[in-house]
């Protein structure tokens, strides 16, 4: 999916009116790397191999941790956008993992969240300059609808660019990660519990 189509599906219009959305913007490489590290660590701790994470279950847990289910944060559209680096359109530690084949353009329904739409955008091989992920954040934050953004980002790779984009935005965002980041205007959301739940672990297993 090209960036212009990404903007088409993510910045929705309904009867020429801006529609505020809850959007989970996922850096695929960062998410899969974190899930793989946590899965390997917990497999050693429990002396058994953990299954790959259920993608829909992770999305629901992550969204709830970010406050999507709270009445004041409800809105008509809930969307997850997976931003893939060139050549990586598969999640190794999630099912379904073939993003362009099994996830792009699909949706699922959850009793608490309602319908969740999913789409995939892939970085082109000729892409240069500012990372596509940061461009997506800038565009969504600049939109008049004031989308509520929850980010799964690679802060080690483009943290400075992302901090500038978030600081220039007109709304607060939630940042999902294993470790808190020193970034102004960001609500911290812990990623580990959602990942472990999606891998089938209970609180008893974790304790």
Structure description:
The chain is an alpha/beta fold and 207 residues long. The protein has one domain (20-198). Helix content is 38%, strand content 25%. The protein contains 8 helices and 11 strands. The relative contact order is 0.21. Residues 1-16 have low confidence and may be disordered.
Strand order of the largest sheet: 7-8-5-3-9-10-11
Mean pLDDT across all amino acids: 84
The topology string of helices and strands comes to HEEEHEHEEHEEHEHEEHH
Report, as a whole number of angstroms, the end-to-end distance.
42 Å
Content of β-strand: 15-25%
**Fraction of helical residues:** 25-40%
The total tally of domains equals: 1
Poorly predicted sequence stretches spanning 5 or more consecutive residues: 1-16
Inertia-based shape: globular
How large, in whole angstroms, is the Cα Rg?
16 Å
Number of beta-strand segments: 11
Secondary-structure-derived class: alpha/beta
Report the major sheet.
7 strands, mixed
Summarize the structure.
The chain is α/β, with parallel strands linked by helices and 207 residues long. The protein has helices at residues 3-10, 28-46, 55-65, 99-103, 132-142, 155-168, 192-198, 203-206; strands spanning 13-14, 17-18, 21-27, 53-54, 77-84, 94-95, 107-110, 114-122, 148-152, 173-177, 186-190. The strands form three sheets. The protein has a seven-stranded mixed beta sheet, sandwiched between helices. A two-stranded antiparallel ribbon has the order 1-2.
